[in-house]
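Let's practice the habit of predicting before peeking. Look at the sequence and jot down your guess about where helices and strands might fall. Then scroll down.
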Amino acid sequence: MTPPEFQYLLNDGFDSITLYENKADSATFRELSRGKYEVKLAVSARKFKADGLGAETEMPLADWIDIGVLDAKGNPLYLVKQKIEKAKTEFTLTVEGMPAKAGIDPWNKLVDRTPDDNLLTVSKM
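Done guessing? Here is the structure:
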């Protein structure tokens, strides 16, 4: 049985055409101590349902979406599903290892209109 907070996944994945506009807006880091870094990440997210004729309707967002910080080799330093409920959300994350990229839905699991803007190069604060 699917828990109530995840019921939307069944509808979005099997019963409707669901599209997202996810975007990493900014990503910065600072060193906390040897090997530990604080990453500040700002993301945008929007959700749409499309009918069979292509007409789209924006839907309320209350979805669990991966938030990730990757090292220079593309390995995750942080990869956690976060409940996204607003069009703009900011995160402050602590990671072990030098961050290189950060963003929302970094593996492009969701159908996104522009998947290439989900990750940003992390710059030093």
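How did you do? The two ends are 45 Å apart (CA to CA).
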